[in-house]
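Section handout 9: paired folding examples.
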Amino acid sequence: MPSPVPVTRLLPSDLYPSLGCGACSSPLNKFGSSLQVPAQRLHGRVASRLWSSVIHWKELRAVVPVGSGGFGSVYRAEYLGETVAIKSVKKSTKNQLASRQSFWAELNAAHLRHKNIVRVIAATTCVPAEYGDECSTGAVLMEFVGNRNLHQVIYGSTEQLGPDRWLRYSADMVHGLRFLHSHNVVHLDLKPANVLLSGDDVCKIADFGCSVKLDPGQEVTSVSPQLSHVGGTYTHRAPELLKGERVSPKADIFSFGITLWQLLTREQPYTGDRQHVLYAVVANNLRPPVQGQAVFESEQGRLCWTLVSRCWSSEPLRRPSAQELLLEVEQLHGRFLS
């Protein structure tokens, strides 16, 4: 089921009995039970293993706004000796349930630690006025990765994106997806803008506001119509999601296929009316154009096209798993860079 996530899924079983600090109650939990996690500080730095339900706002230093949008606002700051990002999730006046769902979905991967996933440090529904107050559903404190995302590199720069880079970026994303899927988390909004680039040019998957947590051992899940946050960006949304069918990790593989096409071509996936695109993706198997793209004309390019086409197959079962995809990306690396 999507958020809220039971605490037993968020923390190792050996730590669960020792919980005893700040509670953070899910607004989606009609029974009113609370999510409690320990706030930790280790040698003056934020502990990396666990996230906390308490943000010590007075410990924030050098707070600088770095972005805003329909989701809310993002700030950069210093927190307990570490550079962090603060994401304040806006409370939608039109759909407050969707706002709450989005905030709690952000925490589906909060307990996970991986080099290709943005690390969550803390989250709370109690936000001071200067960071949103009544206009905010909650705030998430995360590691600060950097000032760039993959969308900016693809469309906003003249940097070369040769095989050495797009293969490395692809492998980073697939490593992150494989880890998420192995922990039953489906991101559901993978796209270049949600892939941040660190100072070491490493990709980290961010923005889990559309994510879903599957039950252990469950490969797909039905999603209630009330869970309006599920879906993600329409240009990268798998056709089964557009049809209201079950969610599975293969939806992320579809989104990766569109993202890889963008890395290779540096063009926008679709043009034209949004509703026309949505209809055509489902009814006419519309996909981003391949004919006329020089990158796909060589023998190596045709191998890339084969991989991309498998990722965005209309049938989820025909798409590779993240594990299979990683092997194929590694094979492409051998073909291009050997």
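Moving on to protein 2 of 2.
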Amino acid sequence: MNRNAPDAGTVPHRPIANRFRSFLPVVVDIETGGLNAATDAVLQIAAVIVRADDKGLLYPAETHTTHVEPFEGANLDPKSLEFNGIDPDHPLRMAKPEEQALRQVFKPVRQEIRETGCTRAVLVGHNAWFDLGFLNAAVERTGIKRNPFHPFSCFDTATLAGLAYGQTVLARAVKASGAGWDGREAHSAIYDAEKTAELFCAIVNRWDELNGFPDYGALAR
């Protein structure tokens, strides 16, 4: 049984392609070896695909993740490694080369774009400029031609949460939304991406509940 299915005949189907001007929101969190996207290593990527149920309510659907080998010559700042708890040389990380890691994450995103009728993915992140910068730098380094993500547009949950709840720190924003937060799990790409996805969906769903589902088709006519 589909937990998101509405009562038959009561709610029109609202595809996610109609909600964000044909963009597919994908929540991304990237753990890194520093703060400089041009010089510092990408160490872990997690991407959460967001879907809409028949009522148009958003929910986190699938998480795709991989550990990443530092690219040749990459900087690894000890303070960043202490912060995220990643040991780049740990034998159980099963990290993949950067190009292979990106292709692994991009493949299900492209498939979701096709299946939903969207035209491109848009990165959703908490302080999204950071994750988008590292993603773009990795794409440029690896020479990948078919990046499914928009190169500069993004949705920032720090900004959205500041508007909705008066909080910009992820942990505080998640708590303000009514969801739980486990500080022991924080700074893992998977955990942070999934909590960011919950936060994004909660804000958008609450907005639509209060203001109605936007009819962008009508605005374009």
